[in-house]
């Protein structure tokens, strides 16, 4: 009974552990990254924040209404000296008059409204362009996330392929070791041959551990670029990579690339910045209005009545405020020239960016062509190395080849397989760059 419970528990634990492993296709990895990677999330937050920026700028064109209140106590009232003749007294004499009250309290509402301010109107246009800038930036960030995930995904795949090659080599070498041991036990093989094959197996185990560590490190890098917890377990399914010549008949228009479009938006923003500075030359007109209620007397006005000597009255005002710039010490002119230099600088960046994108496409095209040739060569080389290993093994068993020849053939076969795998990796990485140069990285989500 206890044994049955133990088996049941181990089976459940194994099943639970297996369920924790996430099978990842390239599409799954990219989808997960776009939903969970911090870079993609922050890009979406910037788009959201741009809406609030527009609202903040729009506030400059809307009326501002505020309430105000104050309570003032004057321990010593201001006095002045006046001619008594003005108040029916004897001309030429002076009287001392006191102005104001000990307590003054006011409460009111004020309103201001921009009627004409060129910088506000330009700011509204710039804010909308800022939103478009962050929308393009979000798209560029997603493409960067896709590129990093795809590159690391293929590198993990190749590392695992190297591990598979070593495992296969270990199995084959173990079979040879068993054959040699049997022949040694029968006096048909030398002790040195058995020792050499044991050393070979030990070296393979060491190489396997190194590759296993490299696989783990590469998987951790992939999970990082996906925004996945490092402790998560993933499994990349075995799949044959499709290696086909790509169509190069149509050179992509680099001016439609996200990087170029983002810089164009930056150029527009700098143009608005220059116009905003130029707006400093224009006059501005605003409306102001206010309504206030004031109480004055020898006592605190709150709750007091005229019988207490406290009197309340209201007053209001409406005005137009015109501001005409005349001379700012050449500050505005300097800022306009600075904005113009920034604008000319970004235009140079646009030219350089276009050249860089054209270069990336040309390099990707060349790398694809070279990789296809290399893959064909390495594929044939791996097949030939396999045939050589098979024949050498047969010859060794028949005493027609030495153990050195067999080990050399085995090493050559392992190297040929790894070279073939590396050639496929080079092709896939170049393919990503080619897809990127066409502005079609999101097409990887359809695979």
UniProtKB/TrEMBL annotation:
Family: Belongs to the outer membrane factor (OMF) (TC 1.B.17) family.
PANTHER family (alphabetical): OUTER MEMBRANE PROTEIN TOLC
Entry protein name: Outer membrane protein TolC
Subcellular location: Cell outer membrane
Native organism: Flavobacterium frigoris
Keyword Membrane part of the UniProt annotation: yes
Example of a GO cellular component annotation carried by this entry: efflux pump complex
Signal peptide coordinates: 1-18
Alphabetic keyword roster: Cell outer membrane, Membrane, Signal, Transmembrane, Transmembrane beta strand, Transport
InterPro entries assigned to the protein according to its UniProt record, in alphabetical order: OMP_efflux, TolC-like
Keyword Iron: no
Domain of life, source organism: Bacteria
Molecular function via GO: efflux transmembrane transporter activity; porin activity
